Amino acid sequence: MSKGDMQDCLTLAIESSCDETSAAVLRGGREILSNIISTQIPVHQKFGGVVPEIASRKHIVNIMPVIDEALREAKVKLSDIGQVAVTYGPGLVGALLVGVSAAKALAFSLDVPLIGVNHLEGHIFANFLSAPELEPPFVALVVSGGHTALVRVKGYHEFELMGQTRDDAAGEAFDKIARVMGLPYPGGPEIDRLAKEGNPDAIDFPRALEEKGNYEFSFSGLKSAVLNYLNSMQQKGEEIHRADVAASFQKAVIEVLAEKALEAVGETGMDKLVLAGGVAANSSLEERLRTACEEKGIRFYFPSKALCTDNAAMIGCRGYYQALAGDGSDFYLNAVPNLGLRSISAKE
Ligand code: KG4
Ligand code: ZN
User: Fold this and answer.
1) Whose CA is nearest to atom 10 of ligand 1?
2) pLDDT one-digit tens code per residue, 134-166
3) Against a cut of 0.90, is the pTM above it?
4) H-run or E-run covering 35
5) What's the gap in Å between 2 CA and the centre of ligand 2?
6) Which range of residues forms the domain containing residue 81?
7) Closest ligand to 281 CA?
8) Within a 10 A sphere around the Cβ of 211, how many other Cβ atoms?
9) Whole-number Å distance between alpha carbons of 36 and 311
10) Residue 190: CB within 6 Å of ligand 1?
11) Residues 270, 154 contacting (CB under 8 angstroms)
12) HSE toward the beta carbon, residue 183, CA cutoff 13 A
């Protein structure tokens, strides 16, 4: 397909990596015609986290109605679809397989290209949907439930992984701390809300790997420090100010994320910083980065709330640019649960 034809091409995108079943239709790379998200959060909430087996079963039930609704809302027919993009990793294997199988069946029956998309790259590309004027190069801070990384995005198909977490992801730390504090799943938004009532300087929790030029992250020490604090307060019979714990923990996470991201922008000589992934919905992180970027003359982008967390539109956007770069899949496409962020050079 020529670049001109691609601009009118309709992409059907499917996302089922975790607890959201989502389908979207995009015209070209950036025009969202529909983005249907069916969340399973209420189903998993009573277990305190996502139950993989239940997630797969729910995806099976939801996938076709969600795709139907995406087509209906976009006012297009299945036969109008020019390509099918789908998340093939990272995520829960059984959950991913539902989306991958549906996408394969549709692409095969429609005789259109199939494009396997890395979910994390999708999160970065959500920013192209929120900010139509955004173009590479930029530095992306990816903060999701399973990953935390800094990526130098040199072009639409040219990335360099600058560093990632050695242990827990930022979102994972939010979820775990929320859980021990008795807050419902997912914990990120709960901590975000509670932290607004607390004093972020009340408790001095540790920050890891703070040395300059180190773009790796580590949140397991911070997690242990918060657990130790809660245990020792309980043992001493002292009152725990939950809002202060939430605010101090959140500050410790945000400071490390913000400092490393700003340093990465400085080192690469770029003038744009892009925030991506579910934790991008955190109001204090967004505020901290926006203020710092304004001071330093860096343009700051973050996706709208609906595009921060898992959705198929971001997968469609990434799939469109992969198609332009000739990076499609064949029908041997399989789910890759531990797929990471990779460096891609322009020649690939
Ligand atoms: O990107 P995402 O929807 O799923 C993954 O790809 O992992 O991210 C989900 C993560 C969860 O850990 C959730 O607690 C966190 O994003 N999250 C937040 C907020 N909203 C969602 N973390 C902090 N503050 C928030 N407002
Ligand atoms: Zn995600």
Assistant:
1) 145
2) 999 999 999 999 999 999 999 999 999 999 999
3) yes
4) strand 31-39
5) 31
6) 3-125+308-324
7) 1
8) 5
9) 8
10) no
11) no
12) 20
